[in-house]
Design brief:
Blueprint (H helix, E strand, L loop, with lengths): L2 E8 L12 H20 L7 E5 L8 H12 L4 E4 L15 H17 L6 H8 L7 H15 L5 E6 L5 E2 L3 H6 L7 E4 L3 E5 L5 E4 L8 E6 H4 L2 H7 L9 H4 L1 E4 L5 E5 L6 E4 L4 E4 L13 H10 L13 E5 L1 H9 L4
Parallel strand pairs: 1-2, 1-4, 2-3, 6-10, 7-11
Antiparallel strand pairs: 4-9, 5-11, 6-9, 7-8, 8-14, 12-13
Length: 333
């Protein structure tokens, strides 16, 4: 089969703050990527893929990103860097109204207070009014021009999406490539695991919507053409829409591991208990949704929620001891 398998990770350019939450955040995220996500890909039984990372234009000269590129070369890891931002619709900006702008402004101010960061107020106002999805066609055009010069012609492209803090099972890449390519076919992963980096807890993860782990199969000529590429996504607004838009095949369960570490944009496993706060279908994910104040507010609105097992009962059975270690080994940990 003549195809390219690309693993795509948007590193910066996602969400509020112009898609970049500062050098401290970026340094921490790179360390998380190296210690978790990268280990799971180095552990793959099939290493026939290239890892594509997208960044904002500002990161082209960022020393942290330059160091990351040098590190990949040192360990002989196949990668591509592009610097035009996110390459699909940012679901943090699905609804762009006056209410959204006001909410964006409040949430960025809240982040500044929470992280004790001093930011230029004019910059925060600019990001509050920013609608990144409007510039997606232009960004996609420039990026795909770069990829056309890197990737030789083929019949198909498998595009696997994963965030910079999540992991895949050692056989996930092979299982994906074993599925025959077809136009408008997608491969999804339903149930998996969740790991709390802060406490070491490992449990089943049972989201009620399609989680952010999927592979879209493109004809090569569609993938490299900006307008056809964009049209192929149709009404895509979030990873939750994949099963509605594409003809989906599910991998066996437990082929991904979702990591919570206290700096997640949309999901947080609170302390060492089964309390989970997620943004759900909200447009913007921020630490406001994840904080103790948020949990206090939820409890005030509905006291029955706590001390129930979870605010959103996505977490299932917890694994300990030897059984836990066997699972983590499958993810390169």
């Amino acid at each position: 089969m003549n195809c390219h398998h690309i693993v795509y990770t948007p590193f910066t350019g996602v969400g509020l703050h112009g898609g970049m939450r500062g050098q401290k955040w970026l340094k921490e995220r790179i360390e998380i990527f190296k210690n978790y996500t990268l280990k799971s890909f180095l552990n793959q039984s099939n290493r026939k893929f290239v890892h594509w990372f997208s960044f904002r234009p500002e990161e082209a000269s960022n020393p942290l990103i330059q160091e990351l590129g040098e590190y990949f070369k040192k360990i002989d890891y196949s990668f591509i860097f592009t610097f035009e931002g996110l390459m699909y619709h940012d679901d943090k900006f699905t609804s762009f109204t006056v209410r959204t702008v006001a909410r964006n402004l409040f949430m960025m101010l809240w982040d500044c207070w929470r992280y004790k960061q001093i930011k230029n107020p004019l910059e925060i106002i600019k990001y509050s009014f920013q609608n990144k999805n409007k510039t997606l066609p232009h960004r996609l055009d420039k990026t795909l021009f770069t990829l056309r010069n890197i990737l030789p012609s083929a019949e198909w492209v498998f595009l696997t999406r994963i965030d910079s803090d999540d992991m895949l099972h050692k056989d996930a890449i092979q299982l994906i490539q074993d599925i025959p390519p077809e136009e408008r076919r997608a491969i999804v992963m339903d149930k998996g695991f969740i790991l709390n980096k802060q406490t070491g807890q490992l449990a089943d993860w049972n989201p009620t919507t399609n989680p952010p782990f999927h592979t879209i199969i493109f004809p090569y000529y569609v993938f490299i053409d900006p307008m056809q590429h964009l049209y192929y996504y149709k009404e895509y607004k979030s990873h939750e829409d994949i099963t509605k838009i594409f003809n989906c095949i599910s991998l066996p369960r437990n082929k991904y591991l979702y990591l919570t570490h206290g700096g997640n944009i949309s999901t947080y496993w609170y302390t060492n208990q089964y309390y989970l706060v997620t943004t759900g279908h909200m447009n913007i994910g921020t630490r406001w949704n994840l904080s103790k104040l948020r949990i206090w507010w939820l409890k005030k609105k509905n006291p029955i929620l706590i001390p129930q097992r979870a605010i959103h009962p996505f977490i299932g059975r917890e694994y300990i001891g030897e059984e836990k270690q066997k699972i983590l080994i499958q993810f390169g940990l």
